[in-house]
Amino acid sequence: MATRSVASASKLDTGAVLAVGFGTAAAMWATGYALRLPFVEAPPPIVLAAMLALSVIGGFFAGRHVRVPIKHGALAGVITMSVNTLILLSLLGGTDPDGVIRRAVLWVPGALLFGAVLGAFGAWLGARQPRAVLDRSSWNGVFAAGLAGATFCMMAIGGLVTSNEAGMAVPDWPRTFGSNMFLYPLSRMTGGIYYEHAHRLFGVLVGLTTLTLCVRLLLTEPRRWLKLLSAVALVLVSVQGVMGGLRVTKASLLLAVLHGVAGQLFLALIVSVAAFCSQRWRAAELSAPLETGSDRTWVVALSGMLVGQLALGAIVRHTGKGVMPHLAVAAVVATLAFVCGMRAWSQHQDRPPLARLGSFLMVVTSLQLILGFAALVASGARAPGQPPTVADILFTTLHQTNGALMLAATGLLTVWTFRLVAAPQPAKAVQRPA
Predict the structure, then answer these.
(1) CA 148: distance to chain centroid?
(2) Angstrom distances, CA of residue 18 to CA of 72, 80, 116, 271
(3) Per the omega criterion (within 30 degrees of 0), is the bond before 174 cis?
(4) pLDDT tens-digit series, residues 299-314
(5) Average of per-residue pLDDT across 358-369
(6) 17 by DSSP, 3-state: which?
């Protein structure tokens, strides 16, 4: 028995390696994007230092939550650097594709080795801290949560593309100015090209992560419906990518609107998958039905109204029309959101997921109203024919991104309500004596 226990403890946990590796890569991409924004332009040494620090932090996380820290940290570091190869090729890119390949042969193996060293070092540091080893079944949820974080970052990056009117900055797809997307030099990514091309690269990261998570769930997840849901997520992110590309080549406003709404639906789907994979979800039990009404009805109504509201918002963003219907529906959606949030927070204190999501939904709804008003004022103050102002870019992007967060919170509240709150039972007819 002792030998078997040791062998089990030392066995590689692939889920942990993938979750930490892809999660660290997503954090590095998001940080690098922010530091290299045209209005930031952080010096390369600062960007490099941030990337190295995040590699160590990823290993540190693995070291605190797996049984064999060094091995898992090193392999997670290799996964991280493998994903980062997509960016490394852009750093090595130029007008000579053969030259890129020659340089890649020299640089890529060294980058993978360096990633393993950084990950192992971070894991060694993490193992020296108080540890909370996660069960193998929990890592799929961690992986999905990391994908949700990457998707949220992609939504913010896409919002900046629209706010800066950079959607057509790169006229071709899937190539970039005739070049392979992954070989287009980062040195040429300036102004609108930076916003648009970075959004494309981040979309590839989200797509690759979704594909890996889907395969992982198909191989390890016993629940058939969750396997099917992961396949739906893969199809949706693929369609989303194609719509984004065709939006450029066809210059279609309809595709632009559909692309924006589908991205927010995808985020809501992925956060739900993360919940389904969690230990808390598997251990949850239904509570007694409420006598005062159905929470399920309220959250379903909110979900449907919110999707319609986001579609109206996308129309306003891309056409400048439909502001009044958007504002009218906003009042209804905000009312429903506060009702759902208050019910979840006040009536389910014994169910932490519902109480926390209820309070969070009320916070993001309040913030959405404030940001919507600020965006309306900022866009209204913009002179016709003039480029967007800093205030316009800031508030419209935050308003759009927070809207995606609001939909994700609503989606989570919906699935947790159906998981934890039983539907009201029909009242039994009272039989009168003859």
Answers:
(1) 3
(2) 10, 9, 14, 18
(3) yes
(4) 999 999 999 999 998 8
(5) 96
(6) helix
Q: Which residue in this structure is represented by tokens 């990056």? A: 157
pLDDT for position 2: 41
Separation in Å, CA 87 to CA 244, 298, 350, 391:
20, 45, 46, 31
pLDDT in tens, 273-296: 999 999 889 887 666 555 445 888
DSSP-derived letter for residue 110 is H
